[in-house]
């Protein structure tokens, strides 16, 4: 052991991703993940089609969409506070014109990985009347809990812990990689209004070819067209006549 790092010398040698101590919980346990390049062979430290990257001093950037949560999943009491600023990119299902900003906190409670946060952005939606673009601010809270499942070794110690997303169709965790981008997409989509209108009066709506729009003067009544001769018309007259005779 290096003499400069002996216990009791007052030097704090804990890394950002150190395990929890009896004194206080540690912050960390989350690393950035980047998608593997398809033309490259998948390296040994990868998880499926994703590769763990160094990031900035091992800390995810605000625009990272994929987070490796392996360490925080196996470290009781550890937490991680992540500031978000995700810009729009080609291929995004959610049409947002300003970056998704906010903050999320992940906490290992022992039984579950708890995720809480608040995010906002501006979505490009369509006016329900004239179909023109309406820029709509959307803000939402995020509340998720993912079960932590461990494999117990012969010594009774959980050597590997996995965070499990119970949502089979919309799972955002695969192989201890959290798809934060997809999680935010789901929450913002649910928070977006289903009906929006232009802030001001809608512009004149173009009519289909052959359709004439007629304006009535104030107080004028629209003329009622004469009903076409039909068997139902005569049936109605017969029923009315029968009812009058019954009342006499």
Q: Can you walk me through this structure?
A:
With 248 residues, this protein is an alpha+beta fold. It has one domain (15-191). Helix content is 14%, strand content 31%. The protein is built from 3 helices and 11 strands. It has helices at 70-74, 180-191, 231-247, and strands spanning 31-35, 46-47, 50-52, 66-68, 79-86, 100-108, 112-126, 133-152, 158-164, 173-174, 177-179. The strands form 2 sheets. Strands 2-3-1-4-11-10 form a 6-stranded antiparallel sheet. It has a 5-stranded antiparallel sheet with strand order 5-6-7-8-9. The longest helix is centred in the last third of the chain and has 17 residues, at 231-247. The radius of gyration is 31 Å and the shape is elongated. Residues 1-23 and 37-48 have low confidence and may be disordered.
Tell me the β content: 25-35%
Q: Give average pLDDT, whole number.
A: 76
Radius of gyration: 31 Å
Q: Give the fraction of residues assigned to helices.
A: 10-25%
Strand order within the widest beta sheet: 2-3-1-4-11-10
Distance between the termini: 116 Å
Topology at a glance:
Blueprint: E1 31-35, E2 46-47, E3 50-52, E4 66-68, H1 70-74, E5 79-86, E6 100-108, E7 112-126, E8 133-152, E9 158-164, E10 173-174, E11 177-179, H2 180-191, H3 231-247
Antiparallel strand pairs: 1-3, 1-4, 2-3, 4-11, 5-6, 6-7, 7-8, 8-9, 10-11
